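job 3f2a | input accepted
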Amino acid sequence: MPDLQRVVRRVDDFQQSHRPLAFIFAVVKKFGDDQGGNLCALITYYGFMSLFPLLLVLVTVLGFVLEGNPGLRNDILNSAVTDFPIIGNQIQRQVGSVRGSGLGLAIGIIFTFYGGLGVANAAQDAMNRIWEVPMRARPGFFPRVLRSLALIGTIGLGIIITTVLSGIGGGTASLGAWSRIGAVVVAFVLNVGLFALAFRVLTAREVAWGDVWPGAVIAAIGWEVLQAVGGAFVSHQLKGMSETYGLFAIVIGLLLWIFLQARVVLYAAEVNVVRANHLWPRSIAPPPLTDGDKRAYAAYAETEERRPDERVDVDIDRRGPKVGEAHGQG
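job 3f2a | predicted structure (330 res):
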């Protein structure tokens, strides 16, 4: 056992003394401290439940706005669904639109749109958790809904546009090579801007643009990689399952696809927080605690403030706990 402890201590000292390794480990450790896997699972669930209502609204709105241009309407819809692995063609064939006229149609669209807000609300909760926003400072019901509407109305449209551009860059043979490269570059730049905007809108804390751009770049790169190879990865994981399990395999494929996207975005957000709050280096096996550990644990405790007149103070014993004793004070 002592030999193992010495090995762990040497590895810990090595990673703490190398800034890139220390930063990467701090991001991974904070993702675990924030229970990032659970946050991704929650976003995946609400993303799955919100997908079809939001597509229903998209088809309906496109039907009105582009009534005289069915070709463009179909191109936009196709670009929005064909990148989903395995089920893109099924969605394209099955998705319909809200039908009716006048006030009834407007009410139908509003309630369908509201039904699709789950993923945006779950993303807000995740970002507030990642930025360690105190419970008392998190938005209530109506402010949260307004933030979610703003997110879907602006960023959702932007994602459709960048997806179309990425599709042009990747598979339109009628355009020249430089035109396709230009479309990919423009899509990437727009994705960086969209993710930076999302990281600011989704958290209740006031964060500067400079605090979110590194994660936005990472999220945009990850998004492009998933668009390029994610579908092949999911298809490989589910190879042969469609014939065996039918619709169940299709559902698993969609859930896995959304989960991968959520994981990329949340890791990118953790990069922003670790960098902005200087939460590195972190210790693999404390004690002793590093300064980054102390700042992180203090922030975790302060998130439990639930009322304006409540304050949580954190005192970390520099000597560390005694053997067999769990020690904490707040």
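job 3f2a | Residues 323-330 have pLDDT under 50 and may be disordered.
job 3f2a | closed
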